[in-house]
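Example record used in the benchmark description.
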Amino acid sequence: MAAWYNFTAGTDNIYTFLAATDGGISTPKRGFTFPVGAWEAKNHKLVTGDFNGDGRGDIAALLGYSDTTVKLWTFLGKPDGTFAEPVEAWSSPAGGPFHKTYMTPQSGDFNGDGRDDIAVWYAYPDGTTKIWTYLSTASGTFNAPTSSWSAPTGTWARTRAKIITGDFNGDGRDDLSVFYGQGDDSIKTYVFNAQPNGGFAAPTVWWRTLALDWNRAYPHSGDFNGDGRDDATIWYDYPDGSDKTSTILSENVDGTDRFGSAKVTLNSPGGLDITRSQLVVGDYNGDGRDDLSIMHHLADDGVKMWTWTARPDTLFNSGLAGYTVPATSWDYTLSRFANTYNY
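Model output (structure tokens):
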């Protein structure tokens, strides 16, 4: 797991939390450091992915400038788990066609070439929506974006879309899935299948539920049963203060790809509150199934890492406690974990 830490003194650091063989999260490594005033963390949006195809995760930061310039910067992963100095990977000039405010970046290998790319969900101020794909290069930079799917004014509200990425149909290309809040706050889930050129097909409905409130649902993606198809899980914040996760496996039934029925896979995990946590999915114990890991903001303002490893039956094992420090050593409010997708 990689956390961007925005020190009050004006410096910024990227910390790497390496996983142990049992999936536990250890003391972080302090990596690349920005000098005072060199980077405005409040103006960037982060994603992780292997953008140069070397087998190590990298970070891409979409940064907006005061003159409306937009740039993508890539921090390549190093063998020790820290990150190299950033390189400019793409830019849009001041007054150009892109503005950071309307851009939501997502990461995945959308053309199936073995390198992760970036897809930007662009919510235009006139109410139209478009998906732009930035294909990666062997050096970890990005080609000029191309657009594929678009929607007319008023048909998609960005504020009602929670977006995750993964290879949901098992074709070797990552797709986008949108958990969309309907007018009654029920959830309808769409999948935008990635095409060979990295663009996206029109969405199809894969799942719907009236039992969960979209406002309390936090979807995530990963291959939780190790079958080569990514699935979805919803961490749900119940009104009574309890939390549960439900997994919906991707499947093909009679030639139709879809998400199956929701199955509770983690029940009230130690009284933890997802609204006081940052969750990142990954295979933390190296068994081929993705797991859940969080940094939790404790009541005394300290932080504690927890990992739940996935079992073959898709349930999650009991929580494994990791790195724990008091508020005097780590300020939760100043840290933000990079993920492969952004809501």
